Amino acid sequence: MRGLVIALTGLYAAASSFAQQTSPVRARISSPISFYDDADPSVHGMLNVSESYAYNKIPVGQDVTFTSTYASLGLNKRIDVSANVSYGRSVFEGTRIAALSDSYFGSKLLLMPETKRRPALALEPMIEVLGDASIAGSPLAPKRVNYVLPFITQKSFDYYRIYYMAGYLSRGIIYNSLAFELNRWSRITPLVIMSGSRLTRELGLVSALGLNRSRSDVIGSVAVTLRPGWSLFVSSGRSVGRVDLNSSHYQITGGLSFNVRLWGKK
């Protein structure tokens, strides 16, 4: 299940990141997006890799991710490093761009491990590198390189886990997400994510264009373990609340996750 959670972290960011707004005068601004993850770093010496495909439909276009590669490597019991890179085709009104999508590079630090009574606490700073679809042809486009500063807390129970992530994206977005993971069966793991985000900049322009300052999404996901270290996953979701040009009518993602031991004990 670890592979599914990590894969969807980058995947959800990539799928949502196409929601960069273009007005009739080509004034592009940041749109609310969100991220989620659990507090557990990748296992020491273990490389986790996920390959996935995604489709996201918005009112005036669509975003198709042909392939998204996520990889994380556990450096020790408390630190891992990760990267998410994808390639896709974005269609927004009359604009079509096929290029590298938004990429994310980060490291997770477990500050406090989870105990029977205490939840875990972790930090996961990331660097965001926006793709051409997010910044092309606009004097108001965000900077290509931005920073994500989040914290994560989680608590495990007999048959489920709950984890919460909140943070700030340096192009002017605050966000949070809450995930509920059911671990009642050995091979099937359902997951439900609720997220919200809000712009902190260009609020006057956002209001003038009739766009939402905030956005909420709900995603449901299922992972199926094929064998130890290998799993398939599929997820689907949409935006909820008031609809604007950035809202997701629906998004669907599917892929394969696997682990490779590079060093250390099996």
Structure description:
With 266 residues, this protein is mainly beta. The chain has a single domain (2-261), classed as monomeric porin ompg (Porin, Beta Barrel), CATH 2.40.160. Helix content is 10%, strand content 56%. The chain has three helices and 16 strands. Strands 3, 4, 5, 6, 7, 8, 9, 10, 11, 12, 13, 14, 15 and 16 form a 14-stranded antiparallel beta sheet that branches. It has a two-stranded antiparallel sheet with strand order 1-2. A hairpin with a 2-residue loop joins strand 14 and strand 15 (230-240). The longest helix has 16 residues, at 2-17. The radius of gyration is 18 Å and the shape is globular.
What key attributes describe this structure?
single chain, about 270 residues, mainly beta, Porin, 14-stranded antiparallel beta sheet, two-stranded antiparallel sheet, 3 helices, about 10% helix, about 55% strand
Mean pLDDT over all positions: 86
Which secondary-structure class do the elements indicate? mainly beta
What count of domains describes the coordinates? Answer: 1
Low-confidence stretches: 1-27
CATH top level class name: Mainly Beta
Q: Any idea what the radius of gyration is?
A: 18 Å
CATH topology type: Porin
Portion of residues in beta strands equals: over 45%
Q: Could you give the distance between the termini?
A: 18 Å
Helix-strand sequence: HEEEEEEEEEHEEEEHEEE
Number of strands: 16
Number of helices: 3
Please give the share of residues in helix. Answer: under 10%
Reported CATH architecture: Beta Barrel
Main beta sheet: strand number and arrangement? 14 strands, antiparallel
| Shape category | globular
Assign the CATH superfamily: monomeric porin ompg
